[in-house]
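step=predict obj=MFS transporter n=452
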Amino acid sequence: MELTEIKRKLFIFTLLAGTFTMSISQSALSTAYPALMHFFTVDAATIQWLTTGFMLMMCVMMPVSPWLLNNISFKHLYLSVLALFGIGTLMIIFAPTFWFALLGRLLEATAVGILFPSFQTVLMTITPKDKRGQTMGAAGLVMGSALAVGPIISGIVLNFLRWQALFWLFCFLMLVIFLAACVTISDVMEQKPSQLDVFSLFYEGAGLGMVLYALTAFKDPAHLLSSVLLLLLGLGLLIAFCQRQLKLAEPLLELQIVKYLDFDIGLLLTGLSYVSLIVVTIVFPLYYQKILGLSPLASGLSLVLPAVLLSVLNPITGKLADKWGFKPVLLVGVSMLLSGWAGLLLWQDHLGLPLLIAFSMVIEGGNAFVMMPATTLGANSVPKNLIAHATALTTTIRQLLGSLGVMGATLLLSNAGQSITQKSSYSRVFICFLLIEAIALVLALRLKEVKK
């Protein structure tokens, strides 16, 4: 279905509004953990399942998005996602027990897992190839802004109102977006009905769930053996999933896309840049609090400037990718990522708040030059009918690598009991991620994509 320019802009605005709200719900929740722990009378390990469970369900649903786009009209799918997220949020508000709230959180995660790959697929489908960088830059702006303002909005609401008010805000926004979507969202995706392969769904869901759960459980030495066994079993199921996809005439996830070299490089680059981004949001607050002695509020506010820079640069880098080509933009971004981690390592004995904020801005600025441009490059490298599969695989691998990065950073920091309060622990993290981004530089140099 062809859209006029005005309808296309309204379509994109409504689509990104839903994505923005869901992104805020992710970044804002951790601020509410103390209030939720007190309300449900649970400990920190239990309340963390609101994030761990969310991540598991989100990753399980991402590979299913191509099948949903092919079998359900996009307007109905988008409205269903908004409604599902709203229902999950209402369940959290009225939850009598923690486990009922967790069920609501899993419904939210189901909606997010479907939407995040789908909205990227739709954006690239309705946008001409030579303007996709700019459009995906706008998408990056939305997601980056949510990262920046989520904790701030949560902090303001919780400072004056009960924790339920935060979720009522999400419900109100979802209602407004739902009503707008009834008018502005159109069926822009071509339908290709197919039967859902239950075995593929089981292998993928169980395999990803086991792998991600094992990664989150590795930090507990008491469960190391069971975590390793669960990880191996999950990897075995994922291998079975991949083998089945290569044999099916209509696979759940088309893995033939890996034969395109630029897609493979784009896939790995977006994952490696995301690892740096997610680790910065975890490691830097720890450094601020454990080494510099800042309060949790001050450490959180210290992340705002880098997040704002990420948001501002995303649309700019998208335009530059359309103008110059993807390879120069990606090389600039990877060089910034390398410079940020190298600076942290070289000046580790002199790291005060100004230097840390500066280096985190370099890293998150580099991310703006890599993550969304690499995602767009990967989609541009495959035939149009495979874009949905490309974005689903990209978002899934990105989440998996992000989880692996968090696990690696956590293990490096907690390697010696109380070492989290020692600068040498953070040096190990700096070295590790400097090496990771060195690999990213090698990948970027291998790109064959040139400006046409």
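step=describe
The CA atoms of residues 60 and 275 lie 19 Å apart.
step=end
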